[in-house]
Amino acid sequence: MNCKLTFKERAEIGMKMLAKQRPVTLEQARAQAKWLSEMSTSKEKRKEFK
Fold first, then answer.
1. How many other C-beta atoms can be found within 10 angstroms of the C-beta atom of residue 49?
2. Count of the separate structural domains present in the chain
3. Residue 22 domain-assigned?
4. What is the extent of the structural domain holding 41?
C-alpha cells in the first residue's frame, strides 16, 4: 500500500468504501448506539469489578 497519499486521494478512497456499505436506517443506528453504550464500561465500573 502506498503510504504517500494526498488528502484528495484518501477522500476518494473513503468515498468508494462508503459507497460499498449497506444503507442503515435511523432505527438501526440508534439500536447500535444503545447496544454499544450498554456494553461499554467506564473506569469506575472496571474498578468495581476488580
1. 6
2. 1
3. yes
4. 7-49
